[in-house]
């Protein structure tokens, strides 16, 4: 990345001033992310990866648009500065946003927190999710942010195509999961909201000294669709083993730790949105496992093709595709 060219472009588009120094974050597997330091402040640059990419993947333009649209809503987002869609500047499209100080919890078990703190952090996370699903699409200019129609059917078709395009070996559990979802999809109930697409605790920045979400990150998979898919993706994460790799809650004594059970979290979300309950949640949960398996398969393929942001992480994530496919089948079967 040519920092001189980048500096000239940013200075021409914004009131930010260079020279800029760039330090790549270890996270940001899908879209490489950099900390930019300059005399005018500290910022973050998020770009598309280089190399051949799947169609509609790594949509940094959509990330920029949705966060800019949410600036004056009840959803906490980072302040956006500028979007560049000219590959000639640094080789790929990118955007620049503020750098937000705060805490990111990569372990959802929150080992350094007290039970009361854990409960408050999880409640804040659920409040923000409900706020995302309560955004007025027309008022924010996001009415056309995603197509209308049956969200699960649309997403199942999209991610099946993405999975097949990046498939590297036969996986019977994944084939069975796709077929099972096609047969079990509930009827479209007409709900259409903004959905984040990858809502989990490590995609949130919390205030340094309070259980308050300062910003929701990583909007690459956001669209308009069914809100229960977001909630199911959050619950899905908790089914994984704890630790740096799984980053889940499986096997933990949630009551002792002050963490909500799946049922408690779903009930709290329903209360925040004023709804009675969620039917067919197992189907939404199975879909969440399926989609994550398809995403990880794409990461694995990019690693094998030499296009991954972090090849070692890509191989590690790719090894979990069979696990997600198996868990998806189990969820679908109740």
TrEMBL record:
Domain Aminoglycoside phosphotransferase residues, every copy: 22-242
InterPro entries, sorted: ACAD10-like, ACAD10_11_N, Aminoglycoside_PTrfase, Kinase-like_dom_sf
A Pfam family the protein falls into: APH
Molecular function via GO: transferase activity
Keywords for the protein's UniProt record, in alphabetical order: Transferase
Protein name according to UniProt: Aminoglycoside phosphotransferase
